[in-house]
Amino acid sequence: MTTVAAYAAPAAKAPLERTTIERREVGEHDVLIDIRFAGICHSDIHQAREGWGDAIFPMVPGHEIAGVVSEVGPGVTAFRVGDRVGVGCMVDSCRECENCRAGREQYCTGGGMVGTYNALGKDGEPTYGGYSQKIVVDENYVVRIPDGLPLDVAAPLLCAGITTYSPLKRWGAGPGKKVAVLGMGGLGHMGVKIAHALGAEVTVLSQSLRKKDDGLKLGADHYRATSDPKTFEELRGSFDLILSTVSAPLDFDAYLSLLRTEGTLANVGAPEEPVSLNLFSVLGGGKTLAGSMIGGIAETQEMLDFCAEHGIGAEIELIDAAGINEAYERVLNSDVRYRFVIDTATI
Hints:
Elements: E1 2-8, E2 17-23, E3 30-39, H1 42-48, E4 65-72, E5 84-87, E6 90-92, H2 98-101, E7 114-115, E8 134-138, E9 143-144, H3 151-154, H4 160-170, E10 178-182, H5 186-198, E11 201-206, H6 212-218, E12 222-225, H7 229-234, E13 239-244, H8 252-256, E14 259-267, H9 280-283, E15 288-291, H10 297-310, E16 316-319, H11 324-332, E17 339-343
Helix pairs in contact: 4-5, 4-10
């Protein structure tokens, strides 16, 4: 076992504090990664504060991890010492179910994927995430970060990037398609960049026009305020796809009205509260209300290669580890443009 410094929540809703954790020895197919940067995802806050249900404490959050390989197990073939790599939201799965074999490990039905943190590994031990100096991960759940992507702006791609890329690709965002991105935050700003790079006509739907200049700069063709009733009147029946990145309950009936016939509203935001829906909102027009959760390992690598090809990284604010608790509060107040990233050298 190796002892490394980390930041952990000792209990639900408690401030994160510096501590130490144990990492397992490097096994046959393991990769030891010196973590350089770790993104702060809203999911980290949901879990550290038990917004999504009971959690495992102490908790070391972080599933947007970018670093450099410092050791490999004797059976590792995909990576070498010195490689630039990333780890996202999962570090294992059953590997045998239909979904795992099809590259959809995030939907593993053989016991479920093993989360990078707030989960139990196959050894029965809790997993600890990226707010730490090092991590040991099976090579099958590690991805390569292309040389064209700086590690700090690449880190958020391991969640925010793949979370938006996967549904945009799945529901055909591209030339000739009108795509709306609902919410202009950590996920939403990546959705705008990726949808634009895929060739779609992109509209941002945000509560206000406060971030309009940013949205247009990042690739949006249009930017509309959802607080203005005229938005719903004028855009009725406009979109092939709406990507909702919002983690609060929505008036789904209103947003479904913005879809064209047989359009899709795909949700990647995960509110803590239940939502309601009038089914006539999907029956009329044959519309689809869908969900999507991250992406498989192969698709995550595809996303990273796509982002490198198109010069896409996250818009970040780099912080020291001592600022994590303040960053959490600022995320909740929508006071970040657009992703906090921890410089893990400061842990």
